[in-house]
Amino acid sequence: MDTLDAMRVFVAVVERNGFSAAAQALDMSTAGVTRQVAALEKRLSTRLLHRTTRRVSPTSAGAAYYAQCVRLLAEFDALEASIGAQALEPSGMLRINAPVSWGIARLGPLLAGYRERFPQVELDLALSDRLVDMVEEGYDVAIRITREPSPTLIARRLGQSRISLCAAPAYLAAHGTPQAPEDLQTHACLGYSYWAAGDHWPLQGPGGEVKVAVTTLLRANNGDVLREAAIGGMGVILQPDFLLHEALADGRLVRILPEWEAAPIGIFAVYTSRSHLAPKVRSFIDYLVETGV
């Protein structure tokens, strides 16, 4: 049994939740996939997978082994890719994770240009505002919009975004325009579920920093929903400018308290290791930097 091949087969079974799907992806027979996993379990003297008629899932030992397999295989692939002229040509599957709203507004329009430049790279993009585990879930690169990226990841700064207070003209006509941060306490506010500050909005302005306790009429885990609700006149939002620029440009939203904003938030490309960085990952991050997202 070739251990590396068996590890690749095992990873495919876990990621595709079954032997048949893994066999199809690897262009193997289902029986061949089953034999490889069985041989791996025998070699390790432990069960790696729970098998039922409906699904296949890793045991606790299998989950731990899967994470190590992903890391080791990535390092092995990167090492091989670094040898020879072929290392200069980005190729293979690039798995990307990005926040939903940023991915739609900024990343989506860039993908065609990247593929035109690097046609040997296949893109697998997952949009989610959930904080994914890059190793466990097998992502090559992720976009994080945060003030402080995780110290366990390698981060490259792509830029930053203003975070502004906005509301629809119709809402302000009906409820008045706030003149000071504390006026927000009497307004309906629309909050982002994943924001650590919750219902205490931190604002920076001429008087330094203040935290305003707001009444959240709507809380949602997606900024696009909050923007559309604000455009509909539901209340005040505090959101990054990459979500707001079109609505501000055409007047569907207007800035309020323009001298007061939340601290700008950074946009980072993150990956798991500097060692043997795959050309596909390096080329993608370089492309994002070049385009000025």
Write up what this structure looks like:
The chain has 293 residues and is α/β, with parallel strands linked by helices. It is built from 11 helices and 13 strands. Strands 3, 4, 5, 6, 7, 10, 11, 12 and 13 form a 9-stranded mixed β-sheet that branches. The protein is elongated and about 75 Å long. The two termini are 46 Å apart. The model has no long low-confidence stretch (mean pLDDT 90).
Would you count the extended β strands for me?
13
Using the CA coordinates, give the radius of gyration: 24 Å
Describe the biggest sheet?
9 strands, mixed
Taken in chain order, the helices and strands follow as HHHEEHEHHEHEEHEEEEHEHEEH
Structural class: alpha/beta
Distance between the termini: 46 Å
What percent strand? 25-35%
Mean pLDDT: 90
**Dominant shape:** elongated
What share of residues is helical?
25-40%
Give me the number of helical elements: 11
Uncertain residue ranges: none
Summarize this, please?
With 293 residues, this protein is α/β, with parallel strands linked by helices. It has helices spanning 3-16, 19-26, 30-44, 60-81, 100-107, 111-117, 134-137, 169-175, 223-231, 241-249, 279-291, and strands at 49-51, 56-58, 92-98, 121-127, 141-146, 154-167, 188-192, 200-205, 208-213, 215-220, 236-240, 254-255, 262-271. It contains eleven helices and 13 strands.
